[in-house]
Amino acid sequence: MMAYLTRRSVLRGSVALGATRLLASPHVAKAAATTATVWFAQGFVQDEDVALRKAVTDYEKASGNKIELSIIPFAPHRQKVVSAITSGVVPDMTMSNPNEILQLFAWQDKWLDVSDVVETQQAQFSETALLAAQAYNSVTKKRGFYGVPLRAAVVPCHIWGSLVEKAGLRTEDIPKTWDAYFDFFKKVQDILRKQGERKVYGLGFQVTANGVDPANLFNAFLIAYGGQDIVTKDGKLHLDDPKVRQAAIKSAGYLGGAYRDGYVPPSAINWNDADDNNAFHAKLMVMDVDGTLSTEVAVKDKHPEWYYKDIVTHGIGYPNDNAGKPVPSIVGVTQGLIPKGAKNVTVAKEFLKYFIQPKVIGEFIELGLGRWLPVMPSLAKSAFWQNPKDPHLRGYAQQGLLGPTRPDYYVFNPAMAEVYSEHVWSMAMIDVAKEGVKPEAAIEKAFKRIEEIFAKYKIA
Amino acid sequence: MDGASVVDVGRPAIRRGTLSRSLRGGLKGGEYTWAVAFVVPYIAVFVAFVAYPVVYGLWMGSKMSLYRELFADPIYQSTVVNTVLYLALGVNVKMFLALLLSGFFMRPGWWMKALLLIFVLPWAVPQISTFISIHWMLNGEWGFLNNALYTLFRVEGPSWLNDRWMALGAVIVSHIWKWTPFWTLILLAGRMAIPLEIRDSARVDGATGVRGFVHITFPLLANLYLICTLLSTIFLLGDFNAVTFISGGGPANSTHVLATLGIRDAFEIAHPRLGVAAVMTALPLVIPLVIVLMRRLRTAEVQL
Fold this sequence. Notes:
The complex is a heterodimer.
Chain A: H1 7-24, H2 26-34, E1 35-41, H3 46-63, E2 66-72, H4 74-87, E3 93-95, H5 101-107, H6 115-119, H7 127-132, E4 134-137, E5 142-145, E6 148-153, E7 157-160, H8 161-166, H9 178-194, E8 201-203, H10 213-224, H11 242-260, H12 275-281, E9 285-289, H13 294-297, H14 304-310, E10 311-313, E11 329-337, H15 345-355, H16 358-366, H17 393-402, E12 405-407, H18 415-421, H19 424-434, H20 439-454
Parallel strand pairs in A: 1-2, 1-3, 8-9, 11-12
Antiparallel strand pairs in A: 3-11, 4-5, 6-11, 7-9, 7-10
Helix pairs in contact in A: 3-16, 10-11, 11-19, 11-20, 18-20, 19-20
Chain B: H1 3-24, H2 29-60, H3 64-71, H4 74-104, H5 110-119, H6 121-124, H7 127-137, H8 144-153, H9 164-192, H10 196-204, H11 209-237, H12 241-247, H13 258-268, H14 272-280, H15 283-303
């Protein structure tokens, strides 16, 4: 029978042809089998993204696989990851952003076990990095490796050496024990004020309820005052431990008290993550306790004299505690994660195995100008990290990789991540700083809330 | 078979024919096919980007336990108060100023046009960079405002963003500053649409100045004013930028509005369902607003 072409038959035929092409195309099927979607947050400097792209291209050449790499600005990346996990439309691999997302979603059984990837470099990773890559899964009731350590960050002290000298003091004379160390900067402020400096503060404490800085700051003090066992490796909370309670009270008292007494810029009560960096660069305060070397790296090109001469990082990590013992630094570790539901797990794992080879990951981190630390102690011995002409890198690597370190508390129980995001410690500091509340009462309130949050995350 | 049963038997056929014609909207053959072809992409886009997200959102925020958690949160309680204040002051002060200014810009002269050009600049500049600038200007120690106060008058200004009410006030004032020009332009267009004959006749009858405004201009603008107010309320309810970039929701989470609290709960606390629930609690306000808006739009159509 002769078939006549009509508009309807052409439309119908075209749709059918298109559908057949989509379903049957061998090219698409092949691509799906060898292509992995990978999400990274944008680097702090362009070189970081260039280094990442280079690593991806090298991997593609070596393997014949394809990586669909998305480099997304920091905040949208975080939102995209949360949305992806919630909706189930996930990439094949993403970096953790924020880091605690590993533990929060591992609790809900949303990540794939990647112990086989970690295994390939297990001997290279620091103990802290290996601990931070693990999380408790409340469905399987087990801890496991759900993250692959990529890079790390620690919280150093940043000091305007030039302001200390302006006060007639020397950075070499900064005391080596905790309270005396921070009190020193109050003294610097007092002297500078007497000299007529109208707006200079001794301490850049982030007594704010924004961002990650206040929790990092509070934790540093909590550990220094002996409260390091607030959450133990088994995920148990120890608010009933008198040492923990005393340390928390002393921390809220010192941090809030410094603000109340006028040694912290008044605007610190509402700083966001970038505000303290801006305030430090404006020489509003003599010292700042802030994560990564971004404070220094940000001014390296524009103000090399600041980087090389005026700004001093403490060099060997935190001052000792009041009894003279070293204070370990909490290290935040960025992880590579593979969500459950990822379409091409094989390529994602292969890529991660390639990416964490010391040579590849080491180059990637060094191109970030030292903002991030490696997670392998052997990499800290490179010429880049041990450059004698650089005043910051050696000390930073010492503090975050070679010296005493520990992972954050959310690694042991994700409830702590919620404590941070709810800014429970911040509210305790603010209660003391601004509302005139006694540290004991502020910590009583904080502990009550922490107990409520931990009640949602019971570890067997 | 009697006559009645014949009619009954025939009815379904008549109904089918009527229903079919009604669905086809009087279009025949190929015209109907083309009409469907044009409508299908719109329906697909509507389903994918409007219906699906709304239904998904409703599903995400459907658990009652979320609302118990939300209502028990003291930050949510202060957020509701902030949202009400933000809407009441932000919308009404802005619209009232826009109404007055639209009258001012009706004055003739080239310099008025030049002034209007300058006046709309706050609206024309990108809002995020503007709000970040305001955040820095209001910094207590090194912000422009306090430095200017000290340089000019030797007065130490306060830390504007350290107090809940000053921070919220800064957000509301910034919103009014940013959006008044836009609504002024809309109301200016409304005023210009009033036929000259009506104004001339009123002038002949002695309705000039305030009387002219009260008896002629405002009654004719009232519907537009109300529609603009309703639209502005709906826009402002979803506004995230002013609070995020000026006060950051601080100090101590005291200046959040529902939109920023939703984002905080969804992405900072990584609890998207709670974030959706926070935004959903605005629905009892949004739905009546949309219904009133639709009704007023129909009335406006008749009047115009």
